[in-house]
């Protein structure tokens, strides 16, 4: 009897977060992504939601590797929790590896984990699977899709992606390779792209840079920009616009997505803001107090809040109409909180 090929989604379908899929063929398993989800409003006391991996625990001797498409929390956030139960080698690109390493360090898993860096365009043999890394564009650099080759045929697992013909780093999604695979024949395409149901297309990341320039040129007051910390291309565009407009920049926040910075790093951020002469900065998150300490030592001051909700409440109270605020909340719940608070104020 022919060997069966199974695709087992363990999370991430019809939901935002905890992306994880197992592929099983000829008695062997590989896993793609290992993400967490942010808790909903009703999950009191819960910080992090992870996929149900009981099937993988039961079959751990048959797992040949964990392949990660990119470094967003909803694709890597559950790794330390799952690794404590299933030790498997991790294959990913360089930036993704850097972000995962921070998590492994935090959970004392560096020594016991094999973390292998693979470049886009290369392939890895893992048991009866050969996994090919294909460059794609996304809101974090170094993202890849996988062509998972088996004797039975090929599955293409895209991960999150967009088609950006003018990406900031100049590395356009490898449509040529995807086209070739299409010609060779693909058994199954597992594609994942936010807003895929909406017609039209998403503008290039370059368009955001032009918007920053317009906003920065027309504003003499303080500008607050929020973004995913891991969207290094967007952070770069903020810095470019600021440099062109002769603005000073202070980088603040809990930097959760770049891993847990040390206390010293947070302290330095506060000191830097004070040295730049920015005396009314706001720090949010578990390490906010450290940022405030750093600022105080350098003669500045930082208002600090333990949680985003607390900050949003206080800030919407205080912000005057002459302050521009560009908000890109990191997840829907925060955006809703902001909107509710703004409504309450008007
Ligand atoms: Zn993503």
Radius of gyration of CA atoms, rounded to a whole number = 22 Å
- The neighbouring-strand order within the major sheet is 1-2-3-4-5-6
Please write the string of helix (H) and strand (E) elements.
EEEHEHHEHEEEEEHEHEHHEHEHEH
Give the CA-based shape: globular
Tell me the total number of β-strands.
15
Structure description:
There is one protein chain. With 346 residues, the chain is α/β, with parallel strands linked by helices. The protein has 11 helices and 15 strands. A 6-stranded mixed sheet has the order 1-2-3-4-5-6. A 5-stranded mixed sheet has the order 7-8-9-10-11, with helices on one face. It has a two-stranded parallel sheet with strand order 12-15. 37% of the residues are buried. Zinc ion binds next to loops.
Question: How do the strands and helices of this protein lay out in sequence?
Answer:
Blueprint: E1 5-11, E2 20-25, E3 28-32, H1 54-58, E4 63-67, H2 73-76, H3 79-83, E5 90-92, H4 94-106, E6 115-117, E7 123-126, E8 129-135, E9 144-150, E10 153-160, H5 175-184, E11 188-192, H6 205-217, E12 223-225, H7 232-244, H8 263-275, E13 281-284, H9 288-297, E14 302-305, H10 308-318, E15 324-326, H11 332-345
Parallel strand pairs: 3-4, 4-5, 5-6, 10-11, 12-15, 13-14
Antiparallel strand pairs: 1-2, 2-3, 7-8, 8-9, 9-10
Helix pairs in contact: 6-7, 8-9, 10-11
Summarize the structure.
The chain is about 30% helix and about 20% strand. By secondary structure, it is α/β, with parallel strands linked by helices. A six-stranded mixed sheet has the order 1-2-3-4-5-6. It has a five-stranded mixed sheet with strand order 7-8-9-10-11, with helices on one face.
